[in-house]
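Data deposition worksheet. Section B asks for the primary sequence of the deposited chain exactly as it was used as input, without tags or linkers unless they were present during the calculation. Section C holds the resulting structure in token form. Section D is free text for depositor observations; keep each observation to a single sentence. Incomplete worksheets are returned to the depositor.
Section A, Depositor: J.P.
Section B:
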Amino acid sequence: MTLKAIKYARLFSINSSFSSKIFGLGLVLALSLHSFSQEMAPKDSLTSDHYLKKSTSQKIAGFVFLGIGATTLAVLSKGETDFEALPVLAIGGLTATLISVPLFISSGKNKRKAASLSVKKENAFLLRNRSVTQISFPAISVKFNLDH
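Section C:
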């Protein structure tokens, strides 16, 4: 039993120069961690223009997929397609048509977000020197949907 106790004692008895080297190495690694890691890009400010552009691009993509799918299915409905290519074209046309549905849904959601975040000029009436004056100032308008 004394042999095991001696081996464990050697493991945990570290001289001061070795521990200071370990501490210094740990400090250098901790300080260099930020400099070698990936830098996070600043998040774009999600403005109404961002959501509106996203909405229009999703709507265009939805119409493209819907057009491709509908055209493929219309060509197949004539019955002049080879039977070897028929399943591939039918699955492709149906898939393209189904892909357009979530694109249209997310386009509508982003359009509503763009409408809910907007910068407007608000008017305020102030009483100055016994007269009412109207001033305008920029204001951020945020709409909350309370139906859920």
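Section D:
The radius of gyration is 33 Å.
The chain has four helices and two strands.
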